[in-house]
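Design a sequence for this backbone.
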C-alpha cells in the first residue's frame, strides 16, 4: 500500500457542485494526497457497457452500495451512445443498468473509477495532479502547490492549458458544469491569465510549424516559464521541459539538455512521485546526461530514445 495523506482530507458539501473533497489541515506542495486503487478498470472502449455491468456485478455488496451513492449524470449524448452499443431504446434498458452506466460515465478517469477520488471536483487551475501509476496499480493525486486548511481539492477534467474561458466552458458542458473556479471569475489577475493562455496557444502553433531547432528551443523555454508562472502544473508543462531538453540535445548543448531534463525530473517527482515509471526513467536519464555533460562517460543511446518519446 502506497502511503498517502488521506487522513488530512474529508468529503464535505461543495456549494453548487454537490459533494467535494476538502483539506482538514494545510498540505504542502509535492505531497501525495491520495493513492487509490480503482474500484473498476475498463481498458478497452469496445463493448464498454457490458464490461461495466460485468465489473459492477463482481464488486462486493459494500462496494456496489458505495458505487451507487456516487454522482449520477445522464446527458443525451450518453443515452445515444448506450442505445447504439446495446441496440435498445434507453427506456428499455433496466433501471439499475441505466444508473450504473450513468455513474460510470460521470466519474470515470478515462479507464479507471475510484470511490474517494470520484468526489474531486473540477477547476481550470487545479491544486492536484492526477496520474495512474502502473508500478502501484493505483491512481495518485499530488499537491501541485501548498493547499491551505479547508481548501477544496480539485483536478482539471479537461485539457485546458492553452484554452480560453469560452473554450473551457464548451468542453465542460458535457459534465454539466458552469465553471466558477479561481481561473474563471472575472478579475484583473485572471484577465492576465487568459492573455497568457492565448500566448501559450500561439507559441504552440509556432512549435508545430517546426522552425529551426534554436527557435523551437526558445519557444519551449518560453512556454515552460509561462505555465510555471501561471501555476499550470499540467501534463503540458512536463512536455515543455521534455521538448526543451530534446532541442538542446539536437543543438548539441549538453548543459542546456541537462538543465531541462532536471526540470522535468523535479516536475515528475512533484506531480507523480519518484516511484512513477516516468520518474524512474527520467532519474536514470538525468544521471546519464550529467555524466556525459561532465565528460566522464560517452553518450548513452538511451538518452536519445528517451528524448524521442513524444515523436517530434
Ligand atoms: C466526478 S463528480 C465530482 C463529485 C461530485 N460533486 C459529487 O457530488 O459526487 C463530477 C460532477 O461534479 C459536479 N462538478 C464537478 N466540478 C464542478 C464545478 N467546478 N462546478 C460545478 N459542478 C461541478 C458536476 O455535476 C460533475 O458532473
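Sequence:
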Amino acid at each position: 500500500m502506497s502511503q498517502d495523506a488521506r487522513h488530512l482530507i474529508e468529503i464535505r458539501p461543495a456549494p453548487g457542485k454537490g459533494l467535494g473533497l476538502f483539506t482538514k489541515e494545510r498540505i504542502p506542495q509535492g505531497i501525495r494526497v491520495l493513492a487509490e486503487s480503482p474500484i473498476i478498470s475498463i481498458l478497452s472502449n469496445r463493448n464498454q457497457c457490458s464490461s461495466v455491468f460485468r465489473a459492477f456485478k463482481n464488486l462486493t455488496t459494500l462496494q456496489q452500495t458505495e458505487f451507487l451513492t456516487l454522482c449520477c449524470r445522464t446527458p443525451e449524448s450518453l443515452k445515444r451512445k448506450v442505445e447504439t452499443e446495446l441496440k435498445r431504446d434507453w427506456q428499455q434498458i433496466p433501471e439499475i443498468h441505466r444508473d450504473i452506466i450513468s455513474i460510470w460515465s460521470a466519474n470515470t478517469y478515462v479507464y479507471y473509477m475510484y470511490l474517494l477520488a470520484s468526489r474531486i471536483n473540477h477547476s481550470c487551475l487545479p491544486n492536484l495532479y492526477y496520474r495512474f501509476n502502473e508500478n502501484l496499480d493505483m491512481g495518485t493525486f499530488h499537491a501541485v502547490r501548498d493547499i491551505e486548511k479547508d481548501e477544496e481539492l480539485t483536478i482539471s477534467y479537461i485539457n485546458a492549458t492553452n484554452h480560453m474561458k469560452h473554450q473551457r466552458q464548451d468542453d465542460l458542458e458535457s459534465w454539466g458544469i458552469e465553471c466558477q473556479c479561481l481561473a474563471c471569475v472575472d478579475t484583473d489577475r485572471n484577465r492576465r491569465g487568459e492573455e497568457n493562455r492565448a500566448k501559450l496557444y500561439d507559441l504552440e502553433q509556432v512549435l508545430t510549424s517546426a522552425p529551426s531547432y534554436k527557435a523551437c528551443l526558445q519557444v519551449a523555454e518560453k512556454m515552460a516559464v509561462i505555465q510555471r508562472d501561471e501555476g499550470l502544473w499540467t501534463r503540458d508543462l512536463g512536455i515543455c521541459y521534455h521538448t526543451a531538453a530534446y532541442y538542446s540535445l539536437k543543438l548539441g548543448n549538453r548543459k542546456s539538455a541537462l538543465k531541462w531534463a532536471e526540470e522535468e525530473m523535479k516536475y515528475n517527482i512533484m506531480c507523480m512521485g519518484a516511484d512513477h515509471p516516468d520518474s524512474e526513467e527520467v532519474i536514470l536519464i538525468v544521471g546519464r546526461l550529467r555524466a556525459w555533460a561532465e565528460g566522464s562517460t560517452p553518450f548513452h543511446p538511451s538518452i536519445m530514445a528517451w528524448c524521442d518519446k513524444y515523436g517530434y
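Residues 16-20, 70-71, 73, 106-107, 118-119, 121-122, 175-177, 179, 181 surround S-adenosylmethionine (CB under 6 Å).
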